[in-house]
Design brief:
heterodimer; A: 115 residues; mainly beta; seven-stranded mixed sheet; four-stranded antiparallel sheet; globular; B: 112 residues; 0% helix
Chain lengths: 115, 112
């Protein structure tokens, strides 16, 4: 049973560039959530995708966008990168509609460094 | 791997002792709480969860206690082992949505 996978593991970009991060959910899951984790802090919710639609969004600017594909995998895109976007980006998957659990399972993350 | 939680409060525990990690949550509407463990260079790993209609839940070597009156959550780890060294986060979910809101985290260091 494959867990949540993310790619790439590490990424270095310069200010103003654009980046795309990828996530494959845990087998059987249909919902993907993205979080940003700065050093020394807990993860902050960016947005969640279900049925290829953005279902809920946190307090992040429009520079952060996403997409979910028919196979439930997802991408996070960040435009016009700022130094402050340097962080660990985490993807979490879950199964919506299952009343027994709302548990989100996390991938290993993508470490983004903006220079 | 990168270091998680450079400025987090730290709990130092002797191997074999019990650990208690505390968390205060803010939203009285939250109805589901989860404890995650995060090791350096890894994503958060699910440990145990509890619904708001419960005040205690036990797992293997772990117990979560929920006090809704004071909006407090705790994680107890029995017979702490070196592999328990990590940063621990509590997270809450409201009935209105599925987004996790994380607390600030506590670093646990297990001394041999």
């Amino acid at each position: 049973d494959a867990g949540v996978t993310q790619s790439p593991t590490h990424l270095i970009k310069t200010r103003g560039q654009q980046v795309t991060l990828r996530c494959s959910p845990k087998s059987g899951h249909d919902t993907v959530s993205w979080y940003q984790q700065a050093l020394g802090q807990g993860p902050q919710f960016i947005f969640q995708y279900y049925e290829e639609e953005e279902r809920q969004r946190g307090n992040f600017p429009d520079r952060f966008s996403g997409h979910q594909f028919p196979n439930y995998s997802s991408e996070l895109n960040v435009n016009a990168l700022l130094l402050g976007d340097s962080a660990l980006y985490l993807c979490a998957s879950s199964l919506v509609g299952d009343p027994s659990t709302d548990t989100q399972y996390f991938g290993p993350g993508t470490r983004l460094t903006v220079l | 791997g990168e270091s998680v939680g450079l400025h987090l409060p730290t709990l130092s525990v002797q191997e074999g002792d019990n650990s208690i990690i505390n968390c205060a949550y803010s939203n009285s509407a939250s109805d589901y709480f989860i404890w995650y463990k995060q090791e350096s260079g890894k994503g958060p790993q699910f440990i145990i969860d509890i619904r708001s209609n419960m005040d205690k839940r036990q797992g293997q070597r772990v117990t979560v206690l929920l006090n809704k009156t004071v909006k407090h959550l705790s994680l107890q780890i029995a017979a702490t082992q070196p592999g328990d060294s990590a940063v621990y986060f509590c997270a809450e979910i409201t009935a209105a949505g599925n987004k996790l809101t994380f607390g600030g985290g506590t670093r646990v260091l297990v001394k041999p």
